[in-house]
Write a structure and sequence with these properties.
Structural class: mainly beta
Low-confidence stretches: 15-29
Strand content: over 45%
Mean pLDDT: 86
Number of helices: 1
Strand order of the largest sheet: 1-2-3-6-8-11-12-15
Number of strands: 15
Order of helices and strands: HEEEEEEEEEEEEEEE
Helix content: 10-25%
Radius of gyration: 26 Å
Length: about 230
């Protein structure tokens, strides 16, 4: 009698999970779309902004491979300045954004949850995703020019120009992105989320030595980014 009850309970569980699976499959089925293009914009803890276009290939509905190209820049970058050892000159980087990374590749793996369908006609689908990946700065070592000016009032003409270059920078960083997405009409995706990374925005210039001293730009153990995005399935 006990064995019969366990068997009956087992059949009920199988029926329930089969029904759930069939329901999810029925909701998710339709025209198969393997590709997604997306554009996101973000702000981060370096007081910087980010723009990232990306392409995702999803051979399976819930798993995909993404390649993004990150463009980032500090909002209030004041550039690098310093003083010569003999106190006769001061130096300044030619451009304000010389020390920070501007571009990076971002390959990642995308894991997406089953959709929760909303609306009377099921036109809206809410889902959650996580994307572990790596960030590869381009190029990893920064180089730029600095100009020397006399320590005199009204001296605005550079006396000489020197080219400096970093070495031994970190080539690969990690990141983990999470997002909540709303899919509209089975094609348009609106998303918002958060990215955690050890990406050092000034990692390409930390080993540059000028006048016997290394540059000492702002540094955070982890970079936090908050983004919004729009995408399209096809």
């Amino acid at each position: 009698m006990t064995t019969s009850r366990y068997n009956t309970f087992g059949y009920i569980l199988i029926f329930i999970f089969s029904s759930i699976g069939t329901s999810i499959y029925a909701q998710e089925k339709g025209t198969v779309k393997y590709w997604k293009v997306e554009l996101t914009g973000a702000v981060n803890t370096y007081d910087g902004w980010e723009i990232e276009p990306s392409v995702t290939y999803q051979p399976v509905r819930y798993i995909g491979l993404t390649m993004g190209l990150l463009f980032c820049n500090p909002i209030n970058e004041s550039g690098f300045i310093g003083e010569s050892q003999d106190k006769q000159w001061y130096w300044s980087a030619v451009d304000d954004d010389n020390g920070s990374y501007l571009f990076a590749l971002r390959p990642s793996v995308l894991f997406t949850s089953p959709s929760i369908w909303l609306g009377e006609d099921k036109d809206y689908a809410l889902s959650f995703s996580i994307s572990p990946g790596i960030t590869i700065p381009l190029p990893p070592n920064r180089e730029f020019n600095i100009e020397y000016f006399p320590q005199k009032p009204g001296a605005w003409t550079a006396f000489k120009t020197e080219h400096v270059k970093n070495k031994d920078a970190t080539f690969v960083y990690y990141h983990l992105r999470s997002a909540v997405s709303l899919e509209i009409d089975d094609s348009i995706i609106l998303s918002m989320g958060y990215t955690l990374s050890n990406f050092d925005l000034y990692g390409g210039s930390r080993n540059i030595v000028i006048e016997g001293r290394k540059l000492n730009p702002e540094r955070h153990p982890l970079m936090h980014s908050f983004f919004i995005g729009i995408g399209y399935f096809f």
